[in-house]
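Changelog note: in this version the structure field was regenerated for every chain. One regenerated record is shown below for reference.
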Amino acid sequence: MADPLLKQRQDRYQQDINRVRAWFKARNGETITSRLIRPDDDKLLIDLYLRLSPEARRRRFHQQVENLDDELIRESARLLAKVDNRTQGGAVLALATDERGEQHAVGVARLGRQLGKPDDPMAEAAIVIRDDYHGQGLGTELLRRLVLLAKQMKVKQMQAVIEADNASAIRLFRELGLPTKSDTSQGETTLIIEMPE
């Protein structure tokens, strides 16, 4: 007999990423806009990086990244925003609107294949949420949308490399409800997540 909960989880991944509703509600009731990243989003990525705590930066990049040169930050953001969401890489942004009506990135989930391998069935996944938005459901929603992006990119497996003591990030990926294998070595847990058909 089929597991109805598993079927319900799998149904979450039947949409086309380009037809997903452009907003969702955070647990605190705030409306968050979500969309695929565009090449002109580099300033949003810089703003997000500057608003992350040192711990969030270290967990995202797996090293201390404080006191970076402004030019390096700008160039990195430009490269991270310059993806096609089709072959080599893509990303989904979560955007909040402040009291002045300006949008700020409060989270991003990225997917990237190895350079020069646009048909590789595996892509690396990463996510970062601004500290003041932790626990609001953004990670869950961004990862669900990332799976839909992976399907558009014809990715068969996502690989997430997470610090082994980052239990909340590991749990977040496991809660996708997709077949997952894991291995922990040298302080990092690598998850291989099978994408739905």
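Spot check on this record: The chain has a mean pLDDT of 91. The first strand starts at residue 23 and ends at 25.
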